[in-house]
Specification:
Layout: E1 9-13, H1 17-27, E2 32-36, H2 39-48, E3 53-57, H3 65-71, E4 79-84, H4 89-99, E5 103-106, H5 111-170, H6 173-182, E6 188-200, H7 203-208, H8 212-232, E7 236-241, E8 244-249, H9 259-282, E9 290-304, E10 310-314, H10 316-326, E11 333-336, H11 337-343, E12 347-357, E13 361-371
Parallel strand pairs: 1-2, 1-3, 3-4, 4-5, 9-11
Antiparallel strand pairs: 6-8, 6-9, 7-8, 9-10, 11-13, 12-13
């Protein structure tokens, strides 16, 4: 079964009816021909049909060919030509500028020449359509590529931020920056840093009464609370070791955190722990209570390992801070002579005397009791009732 071939649609406008008859007779087999004797009639035909080529006479009563073409809504898929017996240059310029004319042809026209011109016009039209289609495809492809690039860039930025956040979770900002820029972080010695150890009293006994999952949840709750408190004073968290919490002030930026900041953080930790213990006791729920030990002195800090980076501190100062915690009492802050000498003008401290420490001999120790009166941000230390230690 043969399918009818769709012929290109041509509109010819001319006030001389004989010209219309000749045109229709010459081209009706090749094109679907529409004719009109006036510009107004031609406009109506254009409104009702998809015309691809418009040919108009220039000299017509009421509306010239140029005026007719200029009044047609601009359609990118329509080609326009003028047939006229008057070839003055001004008409040519007007036709080109106002009518957006493809060709200007003088009368009388030759059928073969006009047929060749019309065919070339349709070839040009088809090429424009293909170019427009390719441009649209290219535009869509570019937009799709831009979206993908944008999405990928956002994804890379998100991943980068996740990595940076992860680094900042395990490393001080300065050390993380050094690691990003150089691929390694050099261990450094600090002449004075203040180390804080916090450890749960009677942890083993309390742990026996809890499921492992509950125990981990409780530790997570307390240690997150500690993280928030030390963060206010620029104290750097180092790690947790079982039920012990280790942090340090004075590094990686020397002087950014003073011994008084570490002591104040310790006071707020004990106050928060004591408050939570009272609340849980009223509900007959178990709670943790901590001993805290603090010592100030030189140490070395840096990143160890090539995988699973860990920022850590080493030196006798760390060992003595641990001994301070072990030699302390529940709900109190036990500090060494080295720390006391640096905070004594700002905090009331109780001298405990010289206490024997394993492998260290006798060390002067003090309990911190609270800020000196009239000192900024005065806070009184709250002791924890030992009766709350029972699970």
């Amino acid at each position: 079964m043969l399918t009818d071939v769709v012929k290109p649609r041509v509109l010819y406008v001319d006030d001389e009816n004989d010209n219309l008859i000749v045109f229709r007779s010459a081209f009706r087999r090749d094109y679907e021909v529409f004719t009109a004797t006036t510009g107004a009639e031609g406009l109506n035909i254009i409104k009702e049909n998809e015309i691809e080529l418009i040919i108009t006479d220039q000299r017509m009563p009421g509306m010239t060919g140029v005026e007719f073409l200029a009044s047609i809504p601009e359609e990118p898929e329509t080609i326009r030509m003028i047939l006229t017996g008057f070839s003055d240059i001004e008409a040519v310029i007007s036709a080109i500028n106002l009518g957006k004319v493809y060709r200007y042809i003088t009368k009388p026209w030759d059928k073969n020449d006009l047929k060749l011109t019309i065919d070339k016009a349709f070839e040009s039209l088809e090429l424009k359509k293909k170019n427009r289609s390719l441009l649209e495809e290219l535009k869509d492809a570019n937009e799709s590529l831009e979206r993908k690039v944008t999405e990928r860039t956002l994804e890379v930025e998100r991943q980068k931020k996740e990595i940076e956040d992860l680094l900042l979770n395990i490393l001080p900002p300065e050390t993380a920056q050094e690691l990003r820029e150089t691929g390694k972080a050099i261990a450094r010695k600090y002449e004075s840093a203040t180390v804080l150890f916090a450890d749960i009293q009677y942890f083993t006994k309390i742990a026996e009464s809890m499921s492992p999952e509950k125990l981990v949840d409780e530790l997570d709750y307390y240690f997150r609370m500690f993280d928030d408190i030390i963060g206010k004073y620029k104290v750097e968290k180092i790690k947790t070791i079982g039920d012990a919490y280790l942090c340090v002030g004075g590094l990686p930026v020397p002087g950014a955190c003073q011994p008084c900041d570490v002591v104040q953080a310790a006071i707020e930790i004990q106050e928060a722990v004591a408050k939570l213990a009272r609340e849980r006791a009223s509900q007959r729920l178990p709670s943790f209570n901590f001993r805290i030990g603090i010592h100030t002195g030189p140490l070395v800090a840096g990143v160890v390992g090539a995988r699973k980076f860990a920022y850590d501190i080493w030196g006798d100062t760390v060992n003595i801070a641990c001994r301070m915690e072990q030699s302390g009492e529940t709900g109190k802050i036990n500090i060494s002579q080295g720390t006391y000498d640096l905070i004594k003008d700002n905090y009331h401290c109780f001298y405990r005397g010289k206490i024997d420490v394993k492998n260290k001999g006798e060390i002067d120790m003090y309990f911190v009791e609270g800020r000196v009166e009239n000192s900024p941000n005065a806070v009184n230390l709250v002791a924890v009732d030992n009766s709350l230690l029972t699970a």
